[in-house]
Specification:
Blueprint (H helix, E strand, L loop, with lengths): L1 H6 L7 H12 L7 E6 L11 H7 L3 E4 L2 H11 L8 H18 L9 H11 L8 H12 L4 E7 L3 H8 L2 H4 L4 E6 L5 H4 L3 H16 L22
Parallel strand pairs: 1-2, 1-3, 3-4
Helix pairs in contact: 2-5, 4-5, 6-7
């Protein structure tokens, strides 16, 4: 449905086209296990090794962090509030809120954008790299309405390491799975089949419900899945 709408556009759509598409998508039923996906723009689109499209094809619903919201956050985070373009960012924020409401259960826009900045300012007050402030705050926000959170970043990216060190896994309300990608064959990324994800989500929830903070390490040479934590 969404791919068909996008394929019909031969130019960048305006707000009116986006609103119309959002209403159409909002009418579609939202089914399947919900995976929130947060990461760098390329890893969420071209460098995911086909993992995300495969999950969707197998019936999972992906809640991708919106590129428009990520850019809006980055611009607002680094812009002088007195600049003339500040008014345009406010209009953009209003349009995103409206589109989010039209998308309904398919929306991945934050209902409270101020909460994103509050989270970012609390955990990463002066961090500037890879839009990491947004990625951290967005993963936390989406974790409240997803069955699991997938973070996607280029292999060996420093920003992803910083987010991990700042306790992203503990901050999320749903199990967190970390994917390190470089548009090449990665067995650990492809092992994210729905059945294996379900098994790992159950294991993580069981550990949390019993008060255990240590997760058993699984076969994972690159750390793409929940790793052991010190108790």
């Amino acid at each position: 449905m969404r791919a068909g709408i996008a394929a019909a556009w031969d130019t960048l759509p305006g707000w009116a086209q986006l609103h119309k598409a959002a209403v159409e998508i909002g009418r579609c039923p939202a089914t399947g296990r919900r995976f929130a996906t947060v990461g760098t723009p390329l890893c969420l689109t071209e460098l995911d090794s086909g993992v995300l499209s495969t999950l969707e094809a197998e019936g999972s619903q992906l809640l991708r962090a919106p590129l428009s919201e990520a850019l809006w956050f980055l611009w607002k985070d680094n812009m002088d509030a007195n600049k003339p373009c500040a008014k345009w960012l406010e209009q953009m924020a209003q349009e995103m809120q409206t589109i989010g409401a039209e998308l309904g259960a398919h929306s991945t826009f934050a209902q409270d954008t101020a909460a994103l900045f509050e989270t970012a300012d609390t955990i990463l007050p002066h961090f500037a790299g890879g839009n990491g402030r947004y990625r951290y705050a967005k993963a936390v926000e989406l974790s409240g309405r997803a069955d699991a959170v997938l973070t996607l970043a280029p292999r060996y990216e420093n920003a992803a390491t910083i987010l991990d060190m700042r306790g992203l896994r503990d901050a999320c309300k749903a199990p967190l799975f970390q994917l390190s990608l470089d548009n090449d064959w990665d067995e650990t990324a492809w092992s994210l089949s729905p059945s294996r994800c379900a098994s790992r989500m159950r294991s993580t929830k069981k550990c949390r419900s019993t008060g255990r903070s240590r997760l058993s390490r699984i076969t994972n040479p690159r750390g793409c899945f929940p790793r052991s934590r010190a108790s």
